[in-house]
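Ticket #587: bound-state structure for fructose -6-phosphate.
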Amino acid sequence: MCGIVGVIAPDASRRAFEGLKSLEYRGYDSWGVCVPAAKGGQFDLERHVGRIANALVSVGEGSEIALGHTRWATHGNVSERNCHPHLSNDGSVAIVHNGIVENFVQLKEKLSKKGFRFNSDTDSEVIANLIQHHIACGFVEAVRLSLLEIEGSYAIAALHGGEEKIVCARNGSPLVIGAAKGGEYYVASDATAFLQHTKNAVFLLDHQMAVCGKGLLEVRSVESGRRVRFRQKRLSWSIEQVRKGSFDHFMIKEISEQPSSIAAAVNQPRKELARFVSILSGARNIVLLGCGSSYHSCIAGSYFFSSVAGINARAILASEFPSFAKFYGKGSVVVAVSQSGETADLLEAVKAAGGENGAKVISIVNVMDSSLMRASDCTLLMNAGPEICVLSTKSYTSQLAILLLLAYSLAGDEWGGKQIIREAADAAKSILDSSRGAMQALAKKLADSNSLFVIGRSDAFPVSLEAALKIKEVSYIHAEGFAGAELKHGTIALVEQGTPAIVLSTQKTRSLTTSNAIEMKSRGAFIIGVDSQPNDAYDININVPELGSANPLMLIIPIQLLSYYLAIERGCDPDKPRNLAKAVTVK
Ligand code: F6R
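RESOLUTION: The complex was predicted; output attached.
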């Protein structure tokens, strides 16, 4: 995971530092910045354990070139010595790295024999020393030769003392270059790090490297070293979308944006939507793949495909796909669902299904030009705008909206699909307005709970999984979601006096979920009904409108609010839950 930045512009260290703040969602256990030292071809380094939060960068005033890194530890514990940037032995090379050098042990051994010493426990430090080892060939070539020796994934940016250029490269981890007026360049894991300076972006492909100097940008193939053509794109995201504005946290901002993000999900290019429908209609079999919340969307998608289009599609966790890959070869269609488009488990599954097996891969992605988008035969973009909070909220409902639109389109009723999703967008606004206060009050009541259960049947079942994930990941209260009937096959043993249980109920499932609610209530549970109708079985009723096949989009919204307010009540940071990072780029 981790986020990297490189800046060639006035006031570079402060700009790198500001860029890192918007990349903190990629990892936030430690951070660092480096700039060239006043003389001697060396670097001034500042590295800290902990979050950037309200820290200030102290190095590099007046510097026009800088590197920065925010870390999610993989190799080596969270400590200053393991923070990036890392310097080579003689201090002449500085690097920041996102990814994993799989053969770092062998490389370390090789370099140690040549007299190199290592000052950290990271895999990344070998990159700095490899570059120093090859430096006689020139900086750019030294980086290239080093990359050729590395097995694994990387997005790197490197500096060499005395040279006013950043050399960067990618393979399997995201990297984008921003080109601003006045010959300024920004290198980052994600364009949000430089959006305030420019919307002109060049997305590097895997196995490409770039040389950025003042007013200079060259892209080269890592393999041959030869220059290659590149395209500059104009980003559609706005700076307001990556700022909190009047909100206290990104989580509540992004929850509140759902009326517009759900509505934006239906704005799909006709040609792409038609292509999706044609691929899916001709499929021998269909599998929906995702991780975490995106996997929950996949399960919801399988219900939509079944109930709306009469099509059987299976949802499988991307990490578990290898056990079933043999059933999805030529003639099969993989629908890969991901906010970031960089989730390693999903990319691996897609690679196996599409490449080796010959299945068609179509994807639903939020981040343009992400690795998943490139690995897919075609993609529908979610149009949700940047999601900065580590938790998925608006991207989850956008995924549901697109899967529902696909189900309707497959049933030959694209118009009906768009209509119901637009109704859902309007209803989302009324739910947000009407349930905010109630959720705040409920959070106060539940803040000291140890454990909580959520049940739902039919298409509300995947919502119960998502609801439980939201609550536990942000408030650290243990929560579990179940299909309504499952609770009594074991877990009901844990229900005792006062145990909170959320019951997600719809017109279609009400009679059975009411029985399940009563079973729990009679054992002392405190029942919170999320339903369009009051019910004697509920101790509290959170009203959401009945919207038929779009119910899953409605049911989750009050729970997102509840999760947010539970985090606030319990003093947790809703934007950066402990141990988590937004883009999970490790397997
Ligand atoms: C939960 C959450 C994660 C992600 C998962 C997949 O709130 O955000 O469970 O859904 O890591 O990420 P993407 O969608 O980027 O593939």
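RESOLUTION NOTES: The mean pLDDT is 94.
TICKET STATUS: resolved
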